[in-house]
Write a structure and sequence with these properties.
Layout (H helix, E strand, L loop, with lengths): L7 E2 L12 E6 L2 E6 L2 E8 L1 H13 L8
Antiparallel strand pairs: 1-2, 2-3, 3-4
Length: about 70
């Protein structure tokens, strides 16, 4: 397996290791996503599918799921 790029966290999470956040890393042609407080649980997707998901969130298409 190819070594993934280093994990990157959102600039909105603040400095230091104690701020839990979503982290992403490139791996081959995919994108790996994890929650920093549970780093062993990793989701893998493609850039296109992640882009579609982010656009849906920004458009409010998934707002009904939080209710």
């Amino acid at each position: 397996m190819e070594n993934p790029a280093p994990w990157r966290k959102s600039s909105f999470s603040g400095p230091g290791e104690t701020n839990d956040c979503v982290e992403v890393a490139a791996a081959g042609g995919g994108i790996r996503i994890r929650e920093s407080d549970t780093p062993a649980d990793i989701l893998t997707t493609t850039p296109g599918r992640l882009g579609t998901f982010i656009r849906a969130i920004k458009a409010g298409a998934l707002d009904h799921l939080g209710r």
